[in-house]
C-alpha cells in the first residue's frame, strides 16, 4: 500500500529544511547523521510480523521447547554462587524449575533488575536494608535507566485523513548538538494526535496528526528500586527525565525543528494549523516540553555490559560473580541505541544463542544463530 499522504509530505518538508531524503532509514541514513525516509515495516500483506512469529511460532512443536503461559518469574535460585533454577508463580502456586545447564534471563529492562534484586543480586546496602540475603554485590543493577523521551507537536488537518496501516510511516534522524557524532534527535510521524494527559486536558483537535520528536541520546539517567522484599509489591521507577540541562536544551531545539518542518509548503495543503505547541506555548517551550513529554517505551540499560563498578554483565552477557547466569535483553546496553530498540534486542538474543551454543557444544564447534540452533 502507498504510504499515508502525511508521511510523503513530511519527508519532502524535512528536505526543505536541509534534512536529506533516503530510500530507507537504515545504514547510510544512520551514518549520515541526518536524514528522512519512509519507514521500514515487518509485515506480510496487511499484518505486522512479530519477533514471536519469526523465531518461536515456526518451532512450537519441538520436543525440547516448552512455552509456559500465565507464569511469572519470582527469583533466580542461586546455590554456592551458581544459578541452578528459577522460582515461578503460576495459578497462585510457586513452582521451582531446575536448570541443568544455564539460566537465561530475558525479561526486559524493568523486570530483569527486579528479578535480580529479589534474587539477592544488586547493591548490598539496598538489599540488606530490605532484608534480602545478598548473593552477589553488583551496585549497577537497576541503575543507568534510559528511554527516548519524546515531545509530540500536533497539527490539525484541513480535511479529515483517517489513520491507516501502520499509523506511522516516516522517520527522521538529525543532529542538533554541535558536539554530537551521531543523531541526537529521532522523529516519527503519527497519523493521529499523540499527547500526554496534561496536553489532552487542554483540548486536542480530533482530526490531527503528530510529529513526535524524541531524545535519541539522552543524558539523564534514572533507576529502578524495590519497594520492599515482597515480590508482589510494585517497583519504584525513578525516571529522572530531563534532569540533565542539556536534555532540556536538545528537547527545545527538537520542538523548534518540528514546528519549522510543519510550516513548510509541502504540508500546507494538509495542515490547517499548528495546535501544539501553538500560540499557547510559543513563548514558553520549556513548559510545553515538561507537560507534553511521553516515553517511546524504549526503556533500556539497567543491567549494563562493561568493566566498571556499575557493570552487571561481561562481554559474553554473563552476570559478574554468578555462574551459569546470562542476560539477553535490552537491559545490557551501556547506552540506549539511537533508533528503535527492537532490532538491537534481536541482535543481543542472536549473540547470546551463539555464545551458549559454543559453550554447550564445545569451543571448537561452529557457532550458529537462534534460527539454526538445535
UniProtKB/TrEMBL annotation:
| Domain named Glucose-methanol-choline oxidoreductase N-terminal: residues | 108-122
Cited SUPFAM superfamilies? FAD-linked reductases, C-terminal domain (SSF54373), FAD/NAD(P)-binding domain (SSF51905)
Q: Reply yes or no: does the keyword Flavoprotein apply.
A: yes
Q: Per UniProt, which keywords does this protein have? A: FAD, Flavoprotein
Q: Which cofactor does it need?
A: FAD
Q: Which GO terms describe its molecular function?
A: flavin adenine dinucleotide binding; oxidoreductase activity, acting on CH-OH group of donors
PROSITE patterns associated with the record: GMC_OXRED_2 (PS00624)
What protein family is recorded? Answer: Belongs to the GMC oxidoreductase family.
Name assigned to this protein: FAD-binding protein
Q: Which organism is it from?
A: Rhizobium lusitanum
Upper lineage:
Bacteria, Pseudomonadati, Pseudomonadota, Alphaproteobacteria, Hyphomicrobiales
Amino acid at each position: 500500500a502507498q504510504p499515508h499522504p502525511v508521511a510523503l509530505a513530511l519527508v519532502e518538508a524535512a528536505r526543505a529544511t536541509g534534512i536529506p531524503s533516503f530510500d530507507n532509514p537504515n545504514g547510510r541514513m544512520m551514518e549520515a547523521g541526518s536524514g528522512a525516509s519512509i519507514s521500514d515495516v515487518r509485515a506480510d500483506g496487511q499484518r505486522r510480523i512479530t519477533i514471536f512469529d519469526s523465531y518461536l511460532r515456526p518451532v512450537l512443536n519441538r520436543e525440547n521447547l516448552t512455552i509456559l503461559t500465565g507464569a511469572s518469574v519470582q527469583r533466580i535460585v542461586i546455590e554456592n554462587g551458581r544459578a541452578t533454577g528459577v522460582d515461578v508463580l503460576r495459578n497462585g502456586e510457586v513452582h521451582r524449575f531446575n536448570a541443568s545447564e544455564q539460566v537465561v534471563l530475558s525479561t526486559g529492562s524493568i523486570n530483569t533488575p527486579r528479578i535480580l534484586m529479589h534474587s539477592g543480586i544488586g547493591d548490598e546496602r539496598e538489599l540488606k536494608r530490605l532484608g534480602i540475603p545478598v548473593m552477589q554485590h553488583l551496585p549497577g543493577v537497576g541503575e543507568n535507566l534510559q528511554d527516548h523521551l519524546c515531545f509530540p507537536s500536533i497539527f490539525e488537518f484541513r480535511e479529515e485523513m483517517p489513520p491507516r496501516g501502520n499509523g506511522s510511516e516516516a522517520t527522521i534522524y538529525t543532529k542538533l548538538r554541535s558536539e554530537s557524532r551521531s543523531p541526537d534527535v529521532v522523529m516519527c510521524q503519527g497519523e493521529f494526535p499523540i499527547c500526554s494527559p496534561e496536553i489532552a486536558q487542554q483540548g486536542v483537535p480530533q482530526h490531527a496528526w503528530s510529529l513526535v520528536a524524541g531524545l535519541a541520546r539522552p543524558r539523564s539517567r534514572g533507576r529502578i528500586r524495590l519497594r520492599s522484599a515482597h515480590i508482589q509489591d510494585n517497583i519504584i521507577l525513578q525516571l529522572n527525565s530531563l534532569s540533565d540541562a542539556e536534555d532540556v536544551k536538545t528537547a527545545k531545539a527538537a520542538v523548534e525543528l518540528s514546528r519549522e518542518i510543519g510550516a513548510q509548503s509541502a504540508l500546507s495543503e494538509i495542515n490547517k494549523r499548528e495546535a501544539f505547541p501553538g500560540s499557547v506555548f510559543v513563548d514558553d517551550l520549556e513548559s510545553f516540553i515538561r507537560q507534553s513529554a511521553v516515553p517511546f517505551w524504549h526503556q533500556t540499560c539497567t543491567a549494563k555490559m562493561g568493566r566498571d563498578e556499575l557493570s552487571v554483565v561481561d562481554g559474553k552477557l554473563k552476570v559478574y560473580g554468578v555462574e551459569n547466569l546470562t542476560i539477553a535483553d535490552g537491559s545490557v546496553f551501556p547506552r540506549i541505541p539511537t533508533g528503535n530498540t527492537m532490532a538491537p534486542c534481536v541482535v543481543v538474543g542472536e549473540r547470546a544463542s551463539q555464545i551458549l551454543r559454543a559453550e554447550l557444544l564445545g569451543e571448537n564447534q561452529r557457532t550458529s544463530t537462534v534460527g539454526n540452533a538445535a
